[in-house]
Amino acid sequence: MTTADKLHDLPLTETDTNRLEMPVEIDDLVSVSQVLSEWGYLAAITGLDHGDRLEVLYHICHGPDVITLRVSLDPQAPTVDSLHPVFPQAGTYERELMEMFGVEVRGTPDRSRLLLPDDWPADEYPLRKEASDD
Amino acid sequence: MEPILTWARVNSIWAVHFNSGSCNGCDIEILSTLTPYYDVERLGIELRGSPRHADVLVVTGAVTRQARDRLLRIHAQMPDPAFVMAVGTCAIGGGVFQGCYNVVGSVSDLLPVDMAVPGCPPRPAAIIAGFAALMERIRKGEPA
Amino acid sequence: MTERFTIPIGPQHPALKEPAHFAFTVEGETVTSASVRLGYAHRGIEKAAETRTFIQDLYLMERVCGICSHIHASTFARAVEELAGVTVPPRARMIRTLVAELERIHSHLLWLGVAAHDAGFEALFMYSWRDRETIMAVLESLTGNRVNYSVNVLGGVKCDITPQLDTQIREAVDYLQERTEHYLHVVNTDRVFLKRTKGIGVMSTEQAIRWGVVGPLARASGVPRDIRVEAPYDAYADFPIDIVLDDAGDLAARFTVRLRELFETYRLIRALLDNLPEGDLTTRFPRRIKQAGEVIVRSEAPRGELFYFVRTEGGSSPSRVKVRTPTLPNMHSVLELAVGAQLADAPMILAGIDPCFSCNDRTSLIRRGGEQDIWSWEKLRQYGIEVYRA
Fold this sequence. Notes:
heterotrimer, A: 134 residues, alpha/beta, Beta Polymerase, domain 2, five-stranded mixed sheet, B: Rossmann fold, five-stranded parallel sheet, 7 strands, 38% helix
C-alpha cells in the first residue's frame, strides 16, 4: 500500500483551508504517526486543558498542509506513548509536554526538565487551568 | 589611596553582563554599544567574561526563578565595590512579564541597583548615558 | 585508554542572548553524548497570554524574542485576525512583509557577527555589526524603535512608508547589498575561517528531513523548506521569493545560504516599495470575538518556521497560545550532530543553527566534586580557537 493510500484510509476531517484533523485513540497514536511520518514532519505538540479532560495535539506538516492528531486523556492519569521512534525530535517536545501538563510520556528518552526551574514543585503543572499565574 | 582608586575605577569600568530572563532585546542593544558604531570601549568600558574582574554588573530582564540564584552568585563573586546597573523596563520593574509564574521579580527586589536605564529596550545611546551617569556617581562617591 | 569526562557548559550568561546549559560527554577530544537544559530565560509567556486580552498579548508576544520580535507579533496578529474573521488591508499586509524582511536583514547580520565571534574572527564580527546599524537606523526611522518595533495592531499596522523613508530604505538596501557580496566572498575564501566551517557539522538531506529541522539550517542541507514559499502569507503570495538551497550541509553552507538569501530579501524589499498600493493601514477590529475557534498560523522567521496555535472560547482573550520557535526543532539537530564531533567544533555547530539563546561569554567555574568542571561558553569558544590555532 502506498503512503497516499494509507493516508486516504485515515478518517480525516477538514477544519480549515489546508488543515485536516482526526481523533486518535491512545493505542493507535504510534501506528498512525508512522504512516504520517512518510508524509510530513512533526511541527509541534500542543497540550490543551479542557477541565474535565486533557487533549494532546500532534501537528504534522507538509508544505502548506497541517494534519492534527487529537488524543483525549484523563486528567487524573494522562499517559501517551512517545513518538521519539517515529520522529526523533519529538523527545524535546515531549519534555515540554510532561512538565507543562503533567502528561506521562511512555518511552521518551530524556525525562529531565527542559524549561521549568530545578526547584519547581514536582506535582505542579503551570499550563493546567487550575494553576494560577503567580 | 581612595581618590586614586576612584580615579582609576571611573576611567576603566569593567562590566559583566547577565541575562536574568530577558527577551534578548536589551542584550543585543548592549552588544551594539560595544561594536564600532557606538564603541563604549573608547570610554574605558569593557565587557568582561568573569564577575571576578568586574566593577559593574549589567542585568537585563525580569529575574526568573531559575536565574535568581545565578544572579545572586555572580553578584557575590564580584570584588568590592560592586555596582549594579539594571538595563531595560523588565530589569527595573518586571515589564510585561510582571506576574508570570516563573518570574520572581525585578533586579531591585534582589540586589541594590545603582543605576537604572529604562526603555524597551533602551537605545545604545541611553545605555551609554547610563554608564556616564554611573561614572559620575562613582567619581562623587555617592552611595547607591 | 582515554578517560571519559562530562563537560557541562553554561548556563551563565551571554554577551548576548539567553543562557542555556549543555552537557557534552567526551572521550579524549570526541563528543560521545550531548544534552541540553533550557529555562533560564523561561518566563511563562504561554500561561500569561491566557490571562490577558488579545491586545495585551500582542505586546507580550512581541517580547518572546527581541531579535525576531516583529515576526512573533505579526504571526500572533494573523492568528487573532483569522479567529475574528478580519481581513487586513493590502497596504498593511505589504508593510508587515516589508518590516519582516528588514528584520531578517538585521537578524542575519547579527548572526553573521556572533558566529564569526564564536569562530574567533573578530574583524568580521565588528564589520557586520557596524553595517547592521544601517538597518537599525531604518527600523528606527520607520517605527520609532530599534528593537521591539511594535508595527502591528490587530487589523493592520501603525506605521507608514513616506517618500523620505522609501529613499532611506532603498539607499540602505543598496549599501548592504554591496557589503553582503563582500561578506559572501570573505566566508567562502578566508582560509582560516573555512577551516572552522568547511566539512564541519555536516547534516545530510536525509537527516535534515528526519529530524524535522527548519529554516536556513534545512535549506543548507538541501531541504526546500521555507514557509514563505510553501504556504505564502501576507505579501509573499503576490511577491514570491526564490528559495535558496545548498546541498553541502556543512557550516560553510549555512553561512552561504543565509548570506545568499539576503539578496532575495533585498530584491523583495525593492519590489514591495515599487508596488506599494495606496489605501488604509488598519481595518476595524471587534472588541470581542464572537465564536470559539482555534487556528494554526505559520511564518518564516529569520531562523525558520515559527508555529503558533491559538485557541479562544470567544470573548477578548485566548484560552491557549502555543508558540513553537524555530530553535526548538533545530536544537535537536545540534545534539545529534555534536556526537562524534570534536569538542572544539561544538561552539560552531551550535552557532550554525543561530540559536535564539546562546551561552556566550560568561565564566563561572563551579566545582561539582571530582571530575566535573563547568566550562563557560567563553572558555569553550577560546578552546575551539586555540585548537585551530595550534
